[in-house]
Amino acid sequence: MPEVRWAALATAAFLPALALDLTGAPAWLWAPLYAICYAAGGWEPGLAGLRALRERTLDVDLLMVVAALGAAAIGQFLDGALLIVIFAVSGALEAFATRRTADSVRGLLDLAPDTATRLTPGGAEERVDVSALRVGDTVFVRPGERLPADGTVREGTSDVQQAGITGEPLPVDKGPGDEVFAGTLNGTGALRVTVDRDASESVIARIVSMVEEASERKAPGQLFIERIEQRYAIGMVAATLALFAIPLALGAELTETLLRAMTFMIVASPCAVVLATMPPLLSAIATCGRNGVLVKSAAAMERLGGITRVALDKTGTLTEASARVRGIRVLPGSGLTEHEALAWAAAAERPSEHPLARAVVAAAEERGLRLEPAADFGSAPGRGVRAVVAGRTVQVGSPLALLDGATPPLKRPGEPAPPTGGGDPGRTDVANESSRRATADDAAHTATTDDPARTATTDDDARTAVDQDGPVRAAVAEVEDGGATAVAVLVDGRPAAVLAIAAPLRAGAAEAVAALGQLTGTPPVLLTGDNKRAAARLGEEVGITDIRAGLLPQDKVATVRGWEDTGERVLMVGDGVNDAPALAAAHTGVAMGRAGSALTLETADAVVVRDELAAVPSLVALSRRARRLVAQNLVIACACIGALVVWDLFGHLPLPLGVAGHEGSTVLVGLNGLRLLHTSAWPGAGRTGRRAAGSETMSGGSSHP
């Protein structure tokens, strides 16, 4: 980017020139370096300012260039060069941030594939550009492919990973009649999808549009600053010209009059005001960086301290991004311990790549369980996996799908322990052997769907089943009532256990929520695409009572804008692509960095790199302290500038004294702002009481040995 290159050149020339000038080196050594600094850092804002003059607008950047040239005209080369470098670097940072955000927005569109497999009326396949798809077309989506368009499933069943759109932490089962979105990842099954929207109207395209639109909505908030800049620039130029022209017209000596006018321009220049604002904010940014938080600009740091309401996403923000086994319910009569039930399940799940399967295997590995190889592995979308382990047939997956027709649990005398090595597994037929891997996700449980109608239906089905199968269905219902995904484990056709799988709460989430409420005086709000029951359960755990569930990206934006329109200054905290529009629409956005999408990280004003939710209230508290220091510095800077200007106007201010006063106030406010660099400046709010992730237990059985 040219802005970065010119700013780098200006800085590179200024630093050695400054050293040579202060050490008393001859002018022929430092003067050319100052000239390079002036030219490299000043030509672009100067040219832009001249163009603005054609439109009858006086740009403050042009004013700074004029002030720098005026300082140089009376021999104050260092003052002028410092002005040039400050504005060149700030302009480069702004251009860099804008470029990165634009690139990220364009990159989001790459989630959707460029081509699609369209089915002709005769059933033949043809490869076409996504832009050629029309509403009503039927596309064929193979396992592992991304969906090319928004539409409705016509044939087939599969699990679809759509966390980036809806925020749901786990893949969602899709079948005929279900809605799917462009850019989401198809899982284990093949789908025939009827296109419902053109590519330009897809949810992913609308997310990009909303990010750009919301970013532009912030511009009116900058109009006040621009009006102040205009008035200050016009007033300063008018005063300088008057201070030069009026005495000259009254017969004053030219050199003395010019010297007074240039002195006025130097002491009235806003260097001290600029530095009064920047050191506290930049020091706060540096302190945040040492504590795992990246704040992208001084303006963002300043805005963070002004928030009045906090909105939090659920998945990946209040909870961790990956699922874990939260509990194990061993069924009466199975004759197994928790470790034995988990070992059977993990051995069968190990060949699968499904997120729930990885959670089961990870839980077994954490406990140091030895797993036998699985033979005759097979999977079926919406049902789960089936494999032969140590001569026993093990099924793991959807409770409603697997428990139908299952033999009630019965303890068998002499039943062997779970596999620990060796064994000569036999073979058995595997249902839906053509599928490559399972979706162990429960098609009925409500922890992974945001469709209220499906939630109500599956709830009723589960309650009816409880009456029929007693303890088995009761265990499933208890797991789901706890906001987790229920996964059934069958050994030789008999229900053996029910696993509870969920994304665990982040360490310190409840404390962070409480701290944010204390800082803003308003309880935080939960905005999530997940279902109401799972959201309500999480809200109880972290202390959030205002819960907005089942929200698509546009719903989150509408909610945030509704608050903003009433005068609230909203802090949005999220991590997924679906959170990006709300982050852009909010007064300030903070992204969780480890699992955050590229667009979210670029759209947010700050990124919590270490994924510590407790850092968010600390960040807000530090921003408020920085704002207080900025206010102090502005008072000091304005008082010094005002005193020097009055002295110059109504007395005789020697140029060296004027420069000393001007630079002295600059140093004073700079040192005051640097106080935030100290280690103790990072607030302790929200950092206490952290809980270890995954330590929760269930009343029916602990997930730990």
TrEMBL record:
This is Heavy metal translocating P-type ATPase. Residues 445-456 have a biased composition (Low complexity). It comes from Streptomyces malaysiensis subsp. samsunensis. Belongs to the cation transport ATPase (P-type) (TC 3.A.3) family. Type IB subfamily. Residues 111-212 form the P-type ATPase A domain. It is a multi-pass membrane protein. PROSITE patterns: ATPASE_E1_E2, COF_2. Keywords: ATP-binding, Cell membrane, Magnesium, Membrane, Metal-binding, Nucleotide-binding, Translocase, Transmembrane, Transmembrane helix. The keyword Metal-binding applies.
